[in-house]
Amino acid sequence: MRALADAGLAPVVIDDLSSGFREFVPAGVPFVLGSILDGELLLKTIEEHNVTGVIHVAGYKYAGVSVQRPLHTYEQNVTGTAVLLAAMAEKGVDRIVFSSSAAVYGTPPTELVTEDTPKSPQSPYGESKLVGEWLLRDQGVAVGLRHTSLRYFNVVGSGTPELYDTSPHNLFPLVFRALGDGKTPKIFGNDYPTPDGTNVRDYVHVADLAISHVAAAKRLDAGLPVETAYNLGSGDGSSVGDIMRAVADATGIDFEPEIAPRRPGDPARIVAAGELAARDLDWEMRHSLHEMVSSAWEATRRAS
To answer: Could you tell me the CATH number of the domain that includes residue 132?
Structure first.
């Protein structure tokens, strides 16, 4: 929202607040309380606010929990997207940026993921995001919808100190919570073929993601060509050990993480290439790992 406003665009927010917070919406930004499953509300909002494009970030994002709640996940992520696209088509809104996920790749056959890497999602969440991409593709054929999907792994950090990560499942909040409770964070396996023996993954700062979402929206507005999907990745990643050391440095809490056994099926290294997004969407890793952790820690402390 802040990135859109800073770019001279006029956002309007629809959120059912199932996981969001009303106070996170900046003053002056129109806010509509409701779900994307409510087609009538979407039609009314599009008309009242003269909506010309959509950035679709409304989704149920917990991959692990989606295994226990597959029907809920599909309702929110697939049915919700279909209802949104139907409302857009009825009102003539012909452009959308879709927040997809690197979960569409599942456990890829290579360590470096490109947009052409085979899709093999391994959770209802990943499957629902892939179906969302298919819906956009098919609406593109049917009604000329202009669209692109942005895929990424772990979103971390805080863009401003008053916005903190509220997820009960994300890595940074889990580590901060453990330290706050006097517990020792865990690393699952330290014998992988990586520089420090721990898993390597992509961690990208939320503010960097916001910049590329805005760039994608502006590119669609300008009628410029876009890829159907872009990876927003670092190309090299950070290890879980790196994360723990950065947490200790940012928080000033000296700790040695507990080493637990490997989790079954956990690959040693998965990171995404970001060259296409760098070419088209102003994508770059503007924040160091330390900045990612310290911004998240500052926001968490301010909220507590």
So the answer is: 3.40.50.720
Distances in Å between the alpha carbon of 285 and those of 111, 234, 299?
19, 7, 20
Q: Which domain holds residue 182?
A: 2-303
CA distance to 33, 108, 269, per residue, from 111 (Å):
41, 7, 6
Gyration radius of the chain's alpha carbons: 19
What's the predicted TM-score (pTM) here?
Answer: 0.93
Structurally, the chain folds into a number of domains equal to 1
C-alpha to C-alpha distance for 53 and 7, rounded to whole angstroms: 15
Per-residue pLDDT of the chain (304 residues), as tens digits, is 678 878 888 999 999 999 888 888 888 899 999 999 999 999 999 999 999 999 999 999 888 889 999 999 999 999 999 999 999 999 999 999 999 999 999 888 888 999 999 999 989 999 999 999 999 999 999 999 999 999 998 899 998 877 777 777 788 888 998 998 999 999 999 999 999 999 999 999 999 999 999 999 999 999 999 999 999 999 999 999 999 999 999 999 999 999 999 877 678 888 999 999 999 999 999 999 999 999 999 998 887 6
Just list the catalytic residues: 125
